[in-house]
């Protein structure tokens, strides 16, 4: 959530082929970094663990079921998209 214009090139220099700190959309996507494909694997902001830890709304026991529900929704969307 604090990336810069140089974040992906720096990660690429370090040997990474993916980036997981993105909240721009729900599904993974590819971008070109120095003419090479680079995967971006986003997550929804409401599932960000920092947001949950800083919030008094979310109890620790609520986190696993919330993550499962989020996964189930995305899994179902993917299943429908390829059907």
In percent, how helical is the residue content?
A: 25-40%
Q: Output mean pLDDT.
A: 82
Shape descriptor: flat
CA-to-CA gap between the ends?
33 Å
Runs in which pLDDT lies below 50 for 5 or more consecutive residues are none
Q: What labels would you give this structure?
A:
single chain; 83 residues; alpha+beta; 3-stranded mixed beta sheet; 40% helix; 14% strand
What do you see in this structure?
The structure is a single chain. Helices cover 40% and strands 14% of the residues. It has 3 helices and 3 strands; from the N terminus they run αβββαα. A hairpin with a 2-residue loop joins strand 2 and strand 3 (36-40). It is flat. 1% of the residues are buried. The mean pLDDT is 82.
Concise summary:
This protein is α+β, with helices and mostly antiparallel strands and 83 residues long. It contains three helices and three strands. The protein has helices spanning 7-13, 49-54, 63-82, and strands spanning 18-19, 29-33, 36-40.
Protein topology:
Blueprint: H1 7-13, E1 18-19, E2 29-33, E3 36-40, H2 49-54, H3 63-82
Parallel strand pairs: 1-3
Antiparallel strand pairs: 2-3
